[in-house]
Amino acid sequence: MINTIEEAYLNGVISDFLGHSERCGTVWIPGADEEAIRRLIPRFRRVVRDLIDRDLVEIREPCNAIWEDAPELDDGEVDEVLADPGTWIKAHGSVNRMVMLMPTARADRLISR
Question: What pLDDT is attached to residue 63?
Fold first, then answer.
């Protein structure tokens, strides 16, 4: 949910989870172990799907980083996006799949945002 509130990308969620702090907690270093990220994809896929099903999170894949320009995804598209490892891994030297997380109106109300 923190990544969602920050309106972040899914390809940073697991690396943030695997990260660690340095310099007395002032700097966060994301995890970069691609195999560790791959092992966690099924778990995170289920969590994000559950948040979507509970109307707390929405995902879209804007090509220009502008949420409003991206079409809404239907259930089949959501499942396809969440199942794609390219959604979760920041690929070095190639094009990343840039899937954004956004809180829904319901989530905004629940967190008084």
Answer: 86
